[in-house]
Amino acid sequence: MKRDSKLSGILHVLLHMAEYQHPVTSEKLALLMHTNPVVIRRVMAGLRERGYVHSEKGHGGGWHLTCDLNQLTLADVWRAVGEPALIALGNRSESPGCLVEQAVNRALDDASRQAEALLLARLERVTLAQLSRDFHHHYPAETTCIASNPDDKQH
């Protein structure tokens, strides 16, 4: 079953950005995520529209955070990146003729709605500041991390 990692990826990027004292280019963020800079720009667009990040062009430009990590929840970021599926559970057929499959679909749909509501409620309670504190608690300043040492290629 394919999982959507867009939310996880952008949270990763945002936490790295929080470690920098200057704007970070799409190219550098793409290196962190092992992806193409175009992918970074596309995902960052939703965050920019909501005022969570800003980009500056030219020499010394790049992306920077424009929000308080204490106020930004995982649910806020989820909404900004287009509300990707939270639960990767689907029906075999969306319009089955079989009454048994209809019963299965109703049960799975109901369970999925309840699980998504619970997960979204949890995402509403977790801020990026909490994730940052967790990161700093588990990885002291001496740990090699691209965010703390922008020229280091380790992650």
From TrEMBL:
Keywords: 2Fe-2S, Iron, Iron-sulfur, Metal-binding, Repressor, Transcription, Transcription regulation
One Pfam family of this chain: Rrf2
A single GO molecular function term of this UniProt record: 2 iron, 2 sulfur cluster binding
Annotated SUPFAM superfamilies: Winged helix' DNA-binding domain
Positions of transmembrane segments: none
A single cellular component GO annotation: cytosol
PANTHER family: HTH-TYPE TRANSCRIPTIONAL REGULATOR YWGB-RELATED, WINGED HELIX-TURN-HELIX TRANSCRIPTIONAL REGULATOR, RRF2 FAMILY
UniProt-recorded name of the protein: Rrf2 family transcriptional regulator
